[in-house]
Design brief:
With about 400 residues, the protein is of the alpha/beta class. Helix content is about 40%, strand content about 15%. It has 14 helices and 15 strands. The structure holds pyridoxal-5'-phosphate. It comes from Copranaerobaculum intestinale.
Length: about 400
Amino acid sequence: MKNLDEIIERRGTTAVKWNHLAEAFGCDEDALPLWVADMDFACADPILAALKERITHPVFGYEDGYDEAYTEAVTGWFKRQFDWELRREDLFFSPGVVPALGFLIDMLSEEGEGIIIQSPVYYPFAAKIRANHREVIDNPLICENGCYRMDFDDLAEKMRLSQVRGMILCNPHNPVGRVWSKAELKQVAAIAEANHKWIISDEIHCDLIRSGYQHTPLAKAYPKYREEIITCTAPSKTFNLAGLQNSNIIIHKEAYRKLWKKKVIDRFSISECNTFSRTATIAAYKDGEAWLREVNAYVDANFQYLSSFLKEHLPKAVLTPCEGTYLAWIDFRAYVSDAAELERIMRHEAKVILDEGSLFGENGNGYERINLACPQCILKDCLNRIAGALIRD
Ligand SMILES: Cc1ncc(COP(=O)(O)O)c(C=O)c1O
């Protein structure tokens, strides 16, 4: 088992989280980065062992990347974790969930049409909708005392709009950390069903669940409408393999599978993962569970630490309860009401790089997202820097 307290030097590698910070953020190069959602932990031993084993064979020619061993590892994982039965033929490769969002938006809507998102939400949702010349239709989440829920009346109203074709759901939700309940998921799907709209359910965070909570795949929560639900999954977030660029997109409806084949596979030959992502994915889904359990427990402890720290040192900060993901969402408006000023203080006085809340939508102004998938001493350093910058007396 890994020692998750170990600090692994990532500066000087090509890690986007740690490199070129001065260039990217206009801050000191030695600022502490807890922004982009990857982990500062070494990946699971079985994955490293499988990759090492693979390079002992010195030929890296064309491969059958999506064979039975691969699809069985993927479907086996979802069966064991969520009691969710998937058919082999429903799985499609994409070199990432964000690229898949682009493919799906193009496949399922026309230019000028609307797609619903629920802000504050992972910013590439809006970016991909706009880059594909579609309209972002926002159904903002409701926040009460730091706790978030969906506005179903508003969602129903937006779903009724004729220019709306569907929605992108974030389940679990980045950045507010909600693991949507079965009842909530059923309600979303029922509203989509009543209006004949599709749902892309981005479930990349499905395995990063805080103690006491359980993820439900949307298509499993509401199976009678699963043909109109496309689920985006990936081993990358779960097992810290983002650099290997692999994701599995689950499409139940034959017409949509045909469209994917035509628009993604036939046009661009994007059809299977590469030698290393295939090897790592099989090892992760077959033998990575013990490591994942340890990581989730460690993130739970980091969340506890963060919560106690804020109570003691920054009691006016509002921490959203985290049910899933390894991302904390904190409202700092009681300390600094202006979002740009808050960001300046974080980058240039505290010297920490976080994801500023405004990235996720206007309702994120004055919030910060902190990545807790790091050794606790890094988190402690980050929080001491923030408290030092916000409390001056
Ligand atoms: C909700 C969500 N979707 C997708 C991604 C990234 O997916 P990928 O790296 O597979 O493109 C992230 C990464 O943070 C995310 O939070």
